TrEMBL record:
TRNA binds at residues 20, 73, 75, 121. The record marks 100 as: Stabilizes the basic form of H active site to accept a proton. Its EC number is 3.1.1.29. This is Peptidyl-tRNA hydrolase. The gene is pth. Catalyzes the release of premature peptidyl moieties from peptidyl-tRNA molecules trapped in stalled 50S ribosomal subunits, and thus maintains levels of free tRNAs and 50S ribosomes. It is found in: Cytoplasm. Belongs to the PTH family. The lineage of its organism: Bacteria, Bacillati, Actinomycetota, Actinomycetes, Micromonosporales. Its main location: cytoplasm. The record marks 15 as: Discriminates between blocked and unblocked aminoacyl-tRNA. One of its GO terms (molecular function) is peptidyl-tRNA hydrolase activity.
Amino acid sequence: MTDETGPWLVVGLGNPGREYAGNRHNVGFMVADLLAGRLGARFGRHKRAVAEVAEGRLGLGGPKLVLVKPLTYMNLSGGPVTGLAQFHKVPPGRVVAVHDELDIGYGQVRVKCGGGEGGHNGLRSMSKSLGTKEYVRVRFGIGRPPGRQDPADYVLSDFGAAERKELEFLVDRAADVVESVITRGVEPTQNLYHGV
């Protein structure tokens, strides 16, 4: 049973550092930054976790959001996430991971709760550290790499010029999806956005 009044932990997955800022793998950070702007919150270094954190309420008197950008590299994201979940007393069912997804076409945003990690090192680290896969994922489609490009190189490369034209709009939609998960729930959000 989850506490219906407790905070939500929204984790943008990415890699710290300016050199990674525009990478496909960092779209989770982009969505977290936009959400912080919507909340009028600023990211700051957390005292007890290797992460940047911003806090605010979704609307007047709405649910509290704790936005997280782990400052470990992607494959070690689970430690800071678990530490912050324990610190804020957030159960896994109220943890939302926002991440890039190779298996979905560019620009599509999908939501699911639980399931596999699809080879995503950030999700794998979170599942291991939280001790469960039963948390919400907001999956931002980046598509498969062209030709024979190694997926690892592809996710660590910047969005292409054509993709960047739509990126701001798509990040905005992904932030809408996160808010919908929190205010409506996973299934209503799937019904609302999966046809788009």
